[in-house]
From TrEMBL:
NCBIfam families membership: glut_race (TIGR00067)
Active site as annotated: 74, 184
Class of the enzyme per the UniProt entry, highest EC level: isomerase
SUPFAM superfamilies: Aspartate/glutamate racemase
Origin superkingdom: Bacteria
Family: Belongs to the aspartate/glutamate racemases family.
Physiological role: Provides the (R)-glutamate required for cell wall biosynthesis.
EC number(s) stated in the UniProt entry for this protein: 5.1.1.3
Recorded name of the encoding gene: murI
Keyword annotations from UniProtKB, A to Z: Cell shape, Cell wall biogenesis/degradation, Isomerase, Peptidoglycan synthesis
Cited Pfam families: Asp_Glu_race
Protein name as catalogued: Glutamate racemase
Gene Ontology MF, one: glutamate racemase activity
Amino acid sequence: MIDRRPIGIFDSGVGGLTVLKEIEKILPHENLIYFGDNLRAPYGSKSTEEILKFTLNISDFFIEKNVKMLIIACNTATAVALEVLKGRLNIPVIGVIAPGAISAINLTKKNKIGVFSTPVTAKMNAYKNEIEKINKDIEVYQIGCKPLCKMIESEWEDTEENQDIIKYYVEKLPTEIDVVVFGCTHYPIIKEYFYRELEGKQFVNPAKETALEVKKLLKKLKLLNKRDSKGKVSFYTSGSINKFKQLAEKILDRSLEKIKRALN
């Protein structure tokens, strides 16, 4: 059976493109629709009520597009709205927190994990709660990094000042941690800045683990698109098309032909 319906992927901005990029590698035949809510970004500084309202609005957009699965490629939206969307929609819904948490658990030898995320994700103890479901002996240190998403969406510059910002947040973690989780899908975009400050630590990019989980679930539910040709990818943003295009092309390392506006 070939299910040609697209997979929906969304984020508050361009961060979720790190998830899309991994899905394209693992599932090249799948049709994908990406929505970046750049107009209302960043979510990490919004109230949970606002974030839930945004995600419900976006899920309605994807249902109209007849998607067969919805991926919340945003840690903050996953923390706030995953269970609500699972109960509301008649299609599979996957977030990025559980795949990232499981990977971190499997990697840590010292049972000490650090997580960099938005303030909302950190305040909700999203990774700590997910990890404790599996192993209560693991200590989880969650650091909310308020300015990073907005800075990345504004096109991050390679400056000493920006490196100092990363250093400021890194210094909040105990040195004993051996695994670091990018608890925001934007952060892998500037991963080198974290690597410089945390040499010798193992990093988890939940985007990769999420893509593997997507493939596993599609196969289980017999929803795979098994055709031979490459899948079609469509892009939508609620914000500036030119700004989205500029950032997206840099992240995906290719030119994008057509980007449409939606929910603006």
